[in-house]
Specification:
By secondary structure, the chain is an alpha+beta fold. It is built from 23 helices and seven strands. Helix content is 65%, strand content 6%. α5 runs antiparallel to α13, α9 crosses α18 and α20 runs antiparallel to α22.
Length: 588
C-alpha cells in the first residue's frame, strides 16, 4: 500500500478532532480569567480529572504509533518502552510528587530557585526545560506529518503545520484550564481508538488461521504493491524477485528484477510489486529482528547490537526521566495539595497500564500483514495501515478512521501540554518582563514555531526513540536535582549547577550524535543512542562530590525548606518562615 491511500473517513476523523479541539479552546477562553488560570488552572483540578489529563498529554506519538512500530521491527524486547513509561510514575510517586506540590513552585525553575536560593539556578533550569520540551515536541510534529501523508499523500510539512496551528490557537485561547479539559477528553478518545479495533483485528487474525508472527523472516503473505515514498537503501538477506518501475542503484528499471544478498538503493517514487511468499527486504539502519530474535526477550543480545546495555540504559532513562518532564510535572502544581498529587499519580499508573495493553498487538499483527513497512522504513505507520489490510470494507475504513482520530488526539494533546509548560518558563523565567498573557502567547508561538521547523529536518531515529532521548536528557538533569534537592539537605548551588551541566552536556551531545546518525554501529553507537546509563550516574556523582566540596555554599534556609517539603498540609504548620514564593502574581 502506498502513501496517500487513506479513505475519506480518515480525513473526516482528522477534521472532527481538530474542530473539537478548537471548540474546547473557545470554551477555555471564557473559563480562563486570571494568570493563575493560564499557568496552573488555579490549583483546583480534581485528581481523577487531572489523571485523565496527564494520561492525555503523556500518551504521545511515541505511545500511539511508535511503540507498535518498534515491536514490528524488533519484537518483544521493545515491551520495555511501555513498561518504563508506566513505571516511571511509581518512582515519581515515591520520591517527588507530594513534596514537589508542597514546595509551592509553579515550574521546575521555580523549584530550583526556591530550594537553592539562587536566581542563576532558575535560568539554568529554564534553559533545560526549553531544550527538553523542544526535543519532545519534534516527534509529535513528525508523527503528525507522517500520519497525514499516510492518509492523504500530502507532504509531511502539511501535517506539522496543521497541528502547530491548532495547538497554538488552543493554547493561546485558554491555556491550562482549557488544555486540562481537552486532554482529559482526549485520553478517553485515544483509549477507545486503540482498544476497539484490536477486538476486530484479533477476530480477523483468528479467522485467517492464527498465523505465527515469529516467522524466520518477514514474508509477504499476499502480493504487495506499493510506491516507495522516499529514497531508501535496503538490506537483502535472502534473494528476492520483484517487479520495479523506477530507479534502482541510480539506474532506471522497468520490469522483473532479482535482488541478491547485499544492499540496494531504491529511488523515491519507485513502484514495487512483491509476490506472495517473497521475503521482504529491510531498510538499512532498521536491522529488524527475525524468528526467535524477534519473539524471545533478550534473544537479540550480541556484541553487534549491545542490546543488553541498551535495555538497561533505556529503563534508567524512562524510570528516572518521567520526573524531569516539564509537561508532566506542571500537572502536579494544579492539584489542591500533596495528598491529591499522590492520588493523581496512582490513577495515572492505572490509566497508562490500560492503554499500553494494546500497541503490542498492532506490532505483532503488522509482522504478518504489513511487512512492507520494513522495506520503506516507515514502521511507525503500522497502527494506521493494519485495519484496511486485514478487515473488509466498511469495517477497515471505519476502524482506520477511528485510529487516525486517536493518533491526531495524541499529537494535539501532548503538543499542547508541552507548549504550555515551555511557554510558561520562557515568558516568566527567561523573559520575565513579558510574563503576562501576551508574553505567554508570544512564547507559545516561538516554541511551537521552533519545534515545528526543527521537525522538518530528517533524523535517524523513530518516534519512540526520539522521545526516549528526551527522557534521557530529563533523567540526566532534573532527576538528580529533584531527588537530592528533596531528600538531601547538603545539596549546594555549586553542586546542583555542576551536576546539571555535566548531565546535560553529556546526554545532549549523545542526543545530537544519535539524531545525526553518528556513529552507526558498535559500542560507541549504543553508548550515544542510550546515554542514560552513564550520564545519569555522572550527574548524581558530580552533584554529591561538588556539594561536599562546597559545604559553605549551602542555603541558610535549608532547614525551613525541608520542613516545607516534607510536612503534610493537614498538620497546618506555619509556612510563613519559608522563603518568598516564586515571582508570580495572579492578575485579573
Amino acid at each position: 500500500m502506498s502513501s496517500g491511500s487513506g479513505s475519506w473517513e480518515q480525513v473526516v476523523a482528522i477534521v472532527l478532532v481538530c474542530a473539537t479541539t478548537f471548540a474546547i479552546g473557545a470554551m477555555g477562553l471564557r473559563l480562563s480569567r486570571t494568570t493563575s488560570d493560564f499557568y496552573v488552572a488555579s490549583r483546583a483540578i480534581d485528581p481523577r480529572w487531572n489523571a485523565s489529563a496527564i494520561g492525555g498529554e503523556y500518551l504521545s506519538a511515541a505511545s500511539f504509533l511508535g511503540v507498535a512500530g518498534l515491536i514490528l521491527a524488533y519484537g518483544t524486547d521493545m515491551l520495555w518502552y511501555p513498561i518504563g513509561y508506566t513505571a516511571g510514575y511509581l518512582v515519581l510517586l515515591v520520591l517527588v510528587s507530594a513534596p514537589l506540590r508542597r514546595s509551592g513552585a509553579y515550574t521546575l525553575p521555580d523549584f530550583a530557585e526556591m530550594r537553592l536560593g539562587d536566581p542563576r539556578m532558575r535560568r539554568l533550569a529554564a534553559v533545560l526545560v526549553v531544550a527538553i520540551g523542544c526535543l519532545y515536541l519534534i516527534p509529535q510534529f513528525q508523527g503528525a506529518g507522517l500520519a497525514l501523508r499516510t492518509v492523504t499523500g500530502t507532504p509531511a510539512w502539511v501535517g506539522t503545520l496543521l497541528v502547530a496551528v491548532v495547538v497554538l490557537t488552543n493554547v493561546a485561547a485558554g491555556a491550562m484550564r482549557s488544555i486540562t479539559l481537552l486532554q482529559a477528553v482526549q485520553y478517553w478518545l485515544k483509549l477507545t481508538a486503540i482498544a476497539v479495533p484490536v477486538v476486530l483485528l484479533l477476530i480477523a487474525w483468528h479467522l485467517d488461521g492464527s498465523p505465527d508472527p515469529a516467522a524466520p523472516d518477514p514474508v509477504a503473505r499476499h502480493a504487495i504493491s506499493l510506491t516507495v515514498p522516499d529514497t531508501v537503501t535496503v538490506e537483502v538477506r535472502t534473494p528476492v524477485t520483484m517487479t520495479l518501475h523506477g530507479t534502482l542503484d541510480g539506474h532506471r528499471v522497468d520490469g522483473v528484477t532479482t535482488l541478491g544478498p547485499g544492499t540496494a538503493r531504491i529511488g523515491g517514487g519507485t513502484h514495487v510489486d512483491l509476490p506472495a511468499g517473497a521475503v521482504v527486504p529491510e531498510a538499512t539502519g532498521l536491522a529488524a529482528d527475525d524468528g526467535a530474535r524477534w519473539a524471545v526477550p533478550g534473544a537479540a543480545e550480541g556484541n553487534r547490537n549491545h542490546s543488553l546495555y541498551r535495555t538497561y540504559s533505556l529503563l534508567i532513562a524512562l524510570l528516572l526521566g518521567t520526573m524531569g518532564l516539564p509537561h508532566v510535572l506542571v500537572r502536579f502544581y494544579t492539584n489542591p495539595d500533596g495528598r491529591a498529587a499522590r492520588r493523581t499519580t496512582l490513577i495515572v499508573v492505572a490509566l497508562l497500564g490500560a492503554f499500553y495493553l494494546f500497541p503490542p498487538v498492532y506490532g505483532a499483527i503488522g509482522r504478518l500483514y504489513a511487512p512492507d513497512l520494513l522495506l520503506t522504513g516507515h514502521t511507525d505507520t503500522v497502527v494506521l495501515e493494519i485495519p484496511r489490510r486485514l478487515l473488509p470494507a466498511p469495517w477497515g475504513d471505519l476502524t482506520a478512521a477511528l485510529l487516525t482520530a486517536g493518533a491526531f488526539a495524541a499529537f494535539l494533546s501532548t503538543s499542547g501540554g508541552l507548549a504550555i509548560s515551555v511557554a510558561g518558563v520562557l515568558s516568566r523565567d527567561l523573559f520575565p518582563g513579558r510574563s503576562g498573557r501576551r508574553g505567554f502567547r508570544a512564547a507559545a508561538a516561538l516554541v511551537i514555531g521552533t519545534a515545528g521547523a526543527l521537525s522538518l529536518f530528517p533524523v535517524h531515529t523513530g518516534l519512540a526513540d526520539t522521545v526516549g532521548l528526551a527522557f534521557a536528557l530529563a533523567a540526566s538533569t532534573f532527576c538528580p536535582l529533584l531527588v537530592l534537592g528533596i531528600w538531601w539537605r547538603r545539596l549546594t548551588v555549586a553542586g546542583a549547577a555542576a551536576g546539571m551541566v555535566v548531565g546535560g552536556l553529556g546526554a545532549g551531545t549523545a542526543i545530537l550524535l544519535t539524531l545525526g546518525g553518528i556513529p552507526r554501529s558498535g559500542l560507541a553507537a549504543a553508548l550515544v543512542a542510550q546515554p542514560a546509563a552513564w550520564s545519569v550516574p555522572a550527574a548524581f556523582l558530580t552533584m554529591v562530590l561538588v556539594s561536599l566540596a562546597t559545604r559553605r555554599g549551602a542555603t541558610p534556609a535549608t532547614g525551613r525548606i525541608m520542613v516545607r517539603l516534607h510536612t503534610p498540609e493537614s498538620l497546618d504548620v506555619d509556612r510563613g518562615e519559608t522563603p518568598p514564593a516564586p515571582r508570580f502574581r495572579a492578575r485579573r
